[in-house]
Specification:
With 258 residues, this protein is an alpha/beta fold. The protein has one domain: Rossmann fold, CATH 3.40.50.150. The protein is 36% helix and 22% strand. Strands 3-2-1-4-5-7-6 form a 7-stranded mixed beta sheet, with helices on both faces. Strand 2 (104-109), helix 7 and strand 3 form a beta-alpha-beta unit. The longest helix is centred in the N-terminal third of the chain and has 22 residues, at 5-26. It is globular and about 50 Å long. The protein starts with a helix and ends with a strand. The structure holds S-adenosylmethionine (SAM). S-adenosylmethionine (SAM) is lined by residues 9, 12, 16, 39, 63-65, 85-88, 90-91, 108-111, 114, 136-138, 153-155, 158-159, 204. Residues 9, 12, 16, 39, 63-65, 85-88, 90-91, 108-111, 114, 136-138, 153-155, 158-159, 204 line the site of S-adenosylmethionine.
């Protein structure tokens, strides 16, 4: 049976809701000894230690990304940043440090328990110009032409409609705006049977698409200067199964024409 977009969203929401609830209830972190989920990366492995210095472990511990989209974004004071699939908020808070009090950071996530964690962290940090919105990245609750930079960390691979995500990212960016993404991409395709494995989809594996297909979808949405580089074998992040294509975490940048 082929899954619908709704069943995929539901499985993904359930997966990340459970992770957020566990983090909130036990006060344990994904990087601590309680780690028991395959789709959980450790912030210390992804980010420069200096970047994390001013963030509490409640934030750095709920880090589920596969790279560091903030550093490659080259953020400037005063910029407006949108983070797709903001989770516990780690990249939003790192961006907040860089755009300063004249900037603004919006995180979108569809999982209520993740938003609750992000908002609790926002409160602890007093990050007034960081806002978390509930919504789907395929239909963003964001004004057109209002964002300087769209970031995302290990989320677009989870979407069942990646073309819609790129169309929306293009819509919300200001002319001349840019994109900075860390995501899982493949070399080759998953078989239709593998794509049916919803647990693996939710763990950032079987929803991933080939890098050239990813770039083609971005191009079709209108993006220019698309680069998919620094591909690192993601076997430390995802569990390799027989018959799987090669899976990488990659850095993806692009721009909206000015
Ligand atoms: C792998 S986690 C990454 C979280 C965060 N970016 C980080 O680096 O820690 C994926 C997050 O994206 C959210 N998400 C997945 N698909 C989504 C969608 N279609 N719309 C909105 N949020 C989504 C999940 O709820 C989850 O919080």
């Amino acid at each position: 049976m082929e899954h619908t977009n709704n069943t995929i969203h539901e499985a993904v929401r359930e997966h990340y809701g459970a992770i957020a609830q566990k983090a909130g209830a036990s006060q344990s972190t994904c990087c601590g000894p309680a780690q028991d989920t395959a789709s959980c990366s450790c912030s210390q492995e992804l980010y420069d230690a200096q970047l994390l210095e001013n963030l509490p472990t409640d934030v750095t511990g709920l880090s589920l990304g596969c790279g560091d989209p903030v550093t490659i974004a080259n953020l400037q004071p005063g910029e407006t940043v949108l983070d797709l699939g903001s989770g516990g908020g780690i990249d939003c808070f790192l961006a907040w440090h860089q755009v300063g009090s004249d900037g603004y950071v919006i995180g979108i996530d569809m999982t209520p328990d993740m938003l609750a964690e992000a908002n609790a962290n926002k409160e602890k940090l007093g990050a007034e110009n960081v806002e978390f919105r509930r919504g789907q990245i395929e239909e963003m609750p964001v004004e057109s032409n209002s964002i300087d930079i769209v970031m995302s960390n290990c989320v677009i691979n989870l979407s069942p409609d990646k073309a819609a995500v790129f169309r929306e990212a293009f819509r919300v960016l200001k002319p001349g705006g840019r994109v900075s993404i860390s995501d899982i991409v493949t070399e080759g395709d998953f078989s239709p049977e593998m794509r049916e494995q919803l647990d693996q989809w939710a763990e950032c594996v079987t929803g991933a698409i080939a890098a050239d297909q990813y770039a083609a979808l971005m191009r079709k949405a209108g993006f220019v200067d698309i680069q998919i580089v620094d591909k690192v074998d993601a076997e430390g992040i995802v569990e390799r199964q027989k018959g799987m294509p090669r899976v990488f975490s990659a850095r993806i940048t692009a721009g909206k024409p000015g």
